[in-house]
Amino acid sequence: MGEVGGEKLDAFVSATTAFLRTEVPEVVEHASEEEISAFVRQGVGQAAANSISDPYLVQQYVLFMAWAGADLSAQPWAAAILSDTQLSPETKIFELEDYILSQRGSA
Description:
Layout: H1 9-23, H2 25-28, H3 33-49, H4 55-68, H5 76-82, H6 89-105
Helix pairs in contact: 1-3, 1-4, 3-4, 4-6, 5-6
């Protein structure tokens, strides 16, 4: 897959907005289209800053932001995963997901 950016960004933001409305309606139900688009764009930026550019992985990253907070990359546990240069983008996403799901399960 290609990278998210350039001409494809608007289409990606639109598709990811629809994805969030389906996957986490409770998180986005009171947000406007503009607010969700800004949230998705923020996620794209955070993902790119952490060497995550595959569209599927970026979409998962944005979903994790919806679950764990817009400041995901600044949270110490996530920062430790994201800053590990030995991890591939896929492994970073898998480790983020494992942590978030373990926390959601214990809540």
